[in-house]
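Quick log. Single chain, no ligands specified.
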Amino acid sequence: MGSLVGRKHEDIVQMLLKTSYRGDLEALSSAYSGRSHLENAINRHFVKKNRLAISSPPPGVKNFLKLYVSKWDIDNIKILLASKELGHKISEDDTFIVNSRGIPMGVFAGNISTEEFRVVLGLPSLEASIDYLSRYPVGVAMASRLDEYRRTGDLSFLFTAMDTFYFSEIVRTLLFIRGDESPLRSYFRDYIDLRNIMVVLKARDQEMDFSIIKERLSPGGSITPAVLEDMFRNSSMADIFESAGKVAGGEAEQHPSNLTDLEIMGRMQLYRRYHPSFLASSISVNTIFDFILTAERERDILRGIVIGSSYGMKNDTVLKLTGMGV
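-> predicted structure:
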């Protein structure tokens, strides 16, 4: 994919037409153009891969995979709730949520159908949306924090409820899958640790008190809340950066100096670290999960290339943005 870096949108389209993206680009060519055409085709291709991955595994494995891809539902719900809270108009088309300027906002690769998102889009208020979504466990989780939202008007209570539910269920569900899932369990422990360290870093960067972010830490990692609090209060930013790098498994000299690059690099390094272990497993949940994770990685790279093309970024910047340059 490095050959796509620095190309204009029309050149990227022509190159992708020679790949498995051809059907997606052709299907959307009459409805979109330029960046929107590329982004929607990339998203469509990614959704198809997710649906393929969860279409045939045994029930226990399928439940876990469906739970994992529900993170896209959570992202879409956050977008919807934030738009209703802020009074921003969001429209939708046959495939993707888009904002009022027609830019794709979400990916329907989870478990909530586009038809049900259409219903939520048409509801008059944020609370009506949560009430409708209570038919799903993630909606029940939000409803449990609704009083705090009413009292404060702070959406973070609702978002934290979804995130806590999601990671708690991931960890719980993994315990009931039979087979050699140790690489998968290790991956999620490290993923949650990295996510929590990023929460600590962002809080320190914004000079927030630890009490504000304590409940935003996700359960299931190997680094306890007490250790994270000690890290927050007593470690330098450089030391916390180094801790994030160690969790991700990258070389110390590769660790970037800003939070955005660190987050991108952390996800990329985790993928590189666990990809060989997943592939080495016999056909199992590990290999199916690796298929999904590889599809995510491919989508991130292509979207980064498209964004770079849109804003005329230098090739080195795009390579860094996508994690290909490290």
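The first strand starts at residue 90 and ends at 92.
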